[in-house]
Amino acid sequence: MERLQKILAQANIASRRKSEEIILEGRVKVNGVIVKELGFKVSKSDQIEVDGKAIERAEHLYFLLNKPTGYVSTTSDEKNRKTVLDLLTEADRQTRLYPVGRLDFDTAGLLLLTNDGDFTKRMTHPEHEVEKEYLARLEGIVIRKKIVQLRKGVIIDKDYLAVPKEVRLLELDKAHQSTLISITLAEGKNKQVRKMCEAIGHPVKKLTRVRYDFLTLEGVERGTYRPLKIHEVKKLYANSAPKN
Questions:
Q1: Which domains are seen in the chain, by residue range?
Q2: What is the DSSP letter of 101?
Q3: Is there a catalytic annotation at residue 116?
Q4: 51, 92, 104, 159: which one is catalytic?
Q5: How far is CA 218 from CA 10, 66, 168, in A?
Q6: In this predicted model, what pLDDT tens digit does every residue of 140-174 receive, in sequence order?
Q7: From residue 161, how far is each of 66, 107, 136, 149, 151 by CA, in Å?
Q8: Model-wide pTM > 0.70
Q9: Ramachandran quadrant class, 2 (left: phi over 0; alpha: psi -120 to 50; beta: rest)
Q10: Residue 237 to residues 124, 128, 156, 232: CA-CA distances in angstroms?
């Protein structure tokens, strides 16, 4: 069951806000009955009409994007910066896709896009523990003690204990005084990887998300994207099923 105004927006009738106005004006019927209630929910079998014309339900779409730095993970930006939707074809932009979660402006890598609200909730809610792996190039040479500290968890945002699923030391670059690590999270606090690395005294120089559950960037060049296959969507749902 989904809210009526959401279905109208997904069907490209109007924006979510404009769809609410259309409902309040009494222009929408569900199964032949006028509905003016904004919280009204409909099922897939319900017949919806706007101004006497049946709407076509929008197909749920799912894409994997390899985000470059310099793009914001939103559908619009008040600072007029480029958004990840600018990387899509004109046809795909018309399907009202939006990012599943976010990657920072200066973070690159794997980002999912969809028009399916249930899918988004499933992928982003902490209770589902969907793993995300990042490669982080850190300033300075990180000693083993600091890696152990990171694995055990560090305090960010004053009082939040951020505990990663896994941390691996990949490279010590003494010539350029930097360290490459892999860090896997099952949550998604704002700028979490950067804050965790700052907490051990080694700020992030470069950050890329390279894995989302079982999905990787293989075959998807930076700045390009591909549709998810139906079996991939089903596997994401299966892997994120509640553990208890």
A1: 2-54 (3.10.290.10), 62-127+215-239 (3.30.70.580), 131-212 (3.30.70.1560)
A2: S
A3: no
A4: 104
A5: 30, 10, 21
A6: 999 999 999 999 999 999 999 999 999 999 999 99
A7: 30, 23, 20, 12, 11
A8: yes
A9: beta
A10: 12, 10, 30, 9
